[in-house]
Amino acid sequence: MFKFVTIYRQVDDPNAIDQFFSETHLPLAEALSNLVKTEVSWVKGKPGGQSRFYLMYELYFDSQEAYQMAMLSEEGVELMKAIKPWGDEKILTWFYSETYED
After folding, report:
1. DSSP per residue, 39-96
2. Fewest CB within 10 A of the end CB: N or C in the chain?
């Protein structure tokens, strides 16, 4: 499988992230073609204390090609337009990776 991961950092106003995520990021991502499953994780901490991260959202696809097709679609372009300003502000980061399950 192949996944696209976005991670939001802790901010002074987590409600702003919650609102953007639930009203914009989530609906745009769930409209992507070829999407197999999603996972949302609210980060509760790290060993030794508080994490600098707040929320992680993972989108799973069958292959890198399926991911690329989804991101080149109208929905994929809209998703990237929506999250890019958050990345530019260093509030959100993203990456993609191959995954393996036993």
Report:
1. EEEE---BTTB--SEEEEEEEEESSHHHHHHHHHSHHHHHHHHHHHHHHHTTSEEEEE
2. C
- Rounded Cα gap, residues 71 and 51, in angstroms: 29
Global confidence as pTM: 0.92
How many distinct structural domains can be found in the chain?
1
Residue 89 lies in a domain: yes
Domain around 86: 62-102
Read off the pLDDT band of 101 (50, 70, 90).
Answer: confident
Question: Each residue of 59-84: pLDDT tens digit?
Answer: 999 999 999 999 999 999 999 999 99
- For residues 52-65, give the mean pLDDT: 97
50 phi, psi to nearest 5 deg: -80, 140
In order, the DSSP letters of 9-45 are: EP-S-HHHHHHHIIIIIHHHHHT-TTEEEEEEEE---
